[in-house]
Amino acid sequence: MSRRFGPAAVHVILIAYSLIALMPILLVVMNSFKARKAIFGAPLALPSSETFSLIGYSKVLGNSNVGMFFFNSVSVTLISMASVLLFGAMAAWALAEYRFKGSTLLALFLSIGIMVPIRLGSISILHTMVSLDLINTRLALILVYTAQGLPMAIFILSEFISQIPKDLRDAARCDGVPEIAIFFQVIAPLLRPAIATVAVFTVVPIWNDLWFPLLLAPGKETQTITLGIQQFIGQYVTDWNSVLAALSVAILPVIAIYLIFSRQLIGGLTAGAVK
Amino acid sequence: MARLNLDQVSKSFGTAEILKAVSLSIEDGEFVVLVGPSGCGKSTLLRLIAGLDPMTSGTLQIGDRVVNDLAPAERKIAMVFQSYALYPHRNVRDNMTFGLKFSGMKKDEIDRRVAEATRMLQLGELLERKPRDLSGGQRQRVAIGRAIVREPDVFLFDEPLSNLDAALRVSTRVEIARLHAMLRATMIYVTHDQTEAMTLADRIVVMNKGRIEQVGAPLDLYFTPANLFVAGFIGSPGMNLFSAHLTQAAETLTATTGFGYALPVKGATLASAASVTIGIRPEHVLFGETPYQAFSARVDLVERLGEISYLYCATVNGTPLIAEWRGRHTPSVGDTVKLSADPGTIHMFGADGTRVPDAVR
Amino acid sequence: MPELTQSALSSKSGFGRLALLVFFLGPAVVIYAAFSVYPLIATMALASFTTDQAGAYHFAGIDNFILLLTDKDWRGPFWNALGNNVLFFIIHMLVQNPIGIAIAGLLSLPALKFRATYRTLIFMPTMLSVVIIGFAWNLILSPLWGVSEGFLKFFGLGSLFQPWLGLEGSALITIGLISVWQFVGIPLMLIYAALLNIPEELVDAARIDGLSHLRIFFHVKLPLIMPTIGLVSILTFVGNFNAFDLVYAIKGALAGPNFSTDLLGTFFYRTFFGNQLQLGSPTMGATVATAMFLIILMGVCVYLFLVQRRLERHSF
């Protein structure tokens, strides 16, 4: 390709597409720092000393709930991720390591969830949560997200576990290390690179989800940031400063974390575990 | 105290029989090497001894105990793996002590053992390093150290030198021999490399297709292979094997190959009209005038190694053979050479492939 | 504890072995069964019931499905949502996946500079919430703000501007393209990973044979990553027929204008929760969910039995 249009052409295409990917995000974030007049007057201009304004942010952050929404999202996402990783790795290990009657069937059973979206069971999930008295609790979300994330996590972690040399656990057995310690002290530390991959496939959808917060935890106390921002925008549709600031508040932390971990995230994706 | 006894040990995976009723006794302090082509069952046998895989049937005794149902750690064995199998996230010291900590051993005893292994293997400055910062040879020494600190009755080695380069392989081989002399422990060593087998073993066990073909001291295997398989497997390049036909004329029984090489033979089990195989090692082929029966062959290729050269030849009917030439002035490609062998170095195998002792006069 | 040995694990059964399996598999199996598989089955069971005025449940067999497919109040919205969903999927297959493949191909060119930067930037939208993205695009395409119009004017194309999200004819395609914009990162990454797995020697050999990069891509690399393209297609299918958030964020549950952006996901939501126009019905909601399940299942089966079997997997 490079000979036909030259490497410059390749870069032109990639830069053009990168701009398409970034422009909408930049546009929102950029304008969120401007006064209302400048948002409409010169939407494509960077905020200058005259147009700079934090009025939108003061409204959004002044809404005392934003901190709580954030806390809800962070706690739900982190606890869900921890249980998906822990229980997923344990199950993946048992399925990969111990041959037992029905192990293939169980693996098949656990993999249904990769293809069939858990949302289709929402009605019954709602009934279950009502009867367990878990509506408007973070626990309800955590349980559902754990169930949702497990199949893919088990799939990815099984691939990782199969890449760990078999000699290692044999050596541990010869050394007299108990089975449970073999998992937690020999195998688990080696799964660290898989965390990034599992995170992309499970954590990102959890953080961004609107459906289950709407269904299971719509109460003010338990709203996640995604749902909270959605409702906030619904209230302030015409207040562009607030809307743009609210969107930026939802976007910026994710982008910050993404940029910090992008090497690992993308490295995890391309590590060959998912082929 | 650490005699090891295998009685009719079998192993199947599904319908595939990997080991077929293997019986073997190993003396205390003996260094036994299991060799054979890949897939012969040697590694499987080692894993059964370690307790990493269950036996399908048979009995395994280590010392006075039947250990069939014991966990690897309870068998008083230690194993060194081809891939070293060091815990990547632990430093050298932790690699050696990790297993011991689970046995409830006192800290000063652990320290004593680590110090001893460290001294024996010169691991001193490596103790705080992680495996990824070590060379292949150093990793293998740590793996051996991890085995030593267990003070096992039996050491098991699974192709421990295969991942090392040629020079390290030689020095580590010497190190293992030295270790055996020092520890006087029973060692069972799996390899496909016959040089390792010949140099290290007190006794070699040659395996093929899940069975033991022959057990014996290295030189016994070389000079008196029990069957065609061992004859072909031990020695490099392999023994030249010629099929021959027996004919009886008056009192004399003669084995004649397709290219006219005729040898007078004897032996109670040999009868006229039977098929046999004649075996001559490349290093036992003689050139030119000798008092022995001779045949001619054409040189197709000369491989010069320095002190010796290998001549790849073809007899008049095209049967290939390899002959070892000592010295500088080798015959040229296309030359016809006259070949023979001292009857004392010629092997004979019956139609069933087993050795016929002292057959060639 | 001999019952924990490998020998015991692989042959004789025992309490220790069972305890070990329960310990490792128990939590995952219980949570997954209780909150994923059971609800799916229960939802499908609920689809065969109706409720009467008093709220009592009666078994109704496949009456709900007949209602959904034939009743004049149900069949229109259902077929509309299904048709829209098919179009939504076609847009992704025709736009998202080819773009993903092309960019992955460019990114995997040897000796490309700034590779990691491009990857990071192009993948960024995929990390963001559909809801947030939906609102952002809603603003950008809104004639009120005029930013899109201004942008087009800059290229002298100002007259082409339309409030695409508001027009019945273009709203669904616009939402489809927004979704493509956001999710192109997933096929991109999966295909990029597959391309990286192709051994360099193979590409070198093709270059020595005199093939250009373009030919190498089409004749050497593309055939080798066919299994990944198959996987990407089925993931796209499942994702599309389950989509909800984007339409809900941009257009709300009513999927306007005039239901022209209604997908099965939003139709399911309205059926279950109700809206200004109708009362919610758990049983009909379950019926729609079951129909969605069957559609997804059909897609997965087509993939597993027709597509995947014909794609040779290559190991290097």
Can you describe this structure?
The complex is a heterotrimer of chains A (275), B (361) and C (316). Chain A is 76% helix and 0% strand. Chain A has helices at 2-32, 36-41, 55-62, 65-97, 103-115, 122-131, 138-163, 166-174, 179-187, 192-208, 211-216, 225-235, 240-269. In chain B, the strands form four sheets. In chain B, strands 6-7-8-3-9-10 form a six-stranded mixed beta sheet, with helices on both faces. Chain B has a five-stranded antiparallel beta sheet with strand order 13-12-11-14-20. In chain B, α2 packs parallel to α4 and α3 (107-121) packs across α4. The radius of gyration of chain B is 25 Å and the shape is elongated. Chain C has a two-stranded antiparallel sheet. The longest helix of chain C has 36 residues, at 72-107. The chains are: A mainly alpha (275), B alpha+beta (361), C mainly alpha (316). Chains in contact: A-B, A-C, B-C. Chain A binds chain B through residues 165, 167-168, 170-178, 181, 185-186, 189-190, and chain B through 47, 50-52, 71-74, 77-79, 81-89, 98-100, 102-103, 146, 150, 156.
Write the layout of secondary structure elements.
The complex is a heterotrimer of chains A (275), B (361) and C (316).
Chain A: H1 2-32, H2 36-41, H3 55-62, H4 65-97, H5 103-115, H6 122-131, H7 138-163, H8 166-174, H9 179-187, H10 192-208, H11 211-216, H12 225-235, H13 240-269
Helix pairs in contact in A: 1-13, 3-13, 4-7, 4-10, 4-12, 5-7, 7-10, 8-9, 10-13, 12-13
Chain B: E1 4-13, E2 16-26, E3 31-35, H1 42-50, E4 57-62, E5 65-66, E6 77-80, H2 92-102, H3 107-121, H4 136-148, E7 154-158, H5 166-183, E8 186-190, H6 194-200, E9 203-208, E10 211-216, H7 218-223, H8 228-233, E11 240-249, E12 252-257, E13 262-265, E14 275-280, E15 286-287, E16 294-304, E17 308-315, E18 320-326, E19 336-340, E20 347-349
Parallel strand pairs in B: 3-8, 3-9, 6-7, 7-8
Antiparallel strand pairs in B: 1-2, 1-4, 4-5, 9-10, 11-12, 11-14, 12-13, 14-20, 15-19, 16-17, 16-19, 17-18
Chain C: H1 6-10, H2 15-46, E1 49-51, E2 57-59, H3 63-70, H4 72-107, H5 115-127, H6 130-141, H7 147-154, H8 171-183, H9 185-196, H10 200-208, H11 213-224, H12 226-240, H13 245-251, H14 264-273, H15 282-310
Antiparallel strand pairs in C: 1-2
Helix pairs in contact in C: 2-15, 3-4, 4-8, 4-9, 4-12, 5-9, 6-8, 6-13, 10-11, 12-15, 14-15
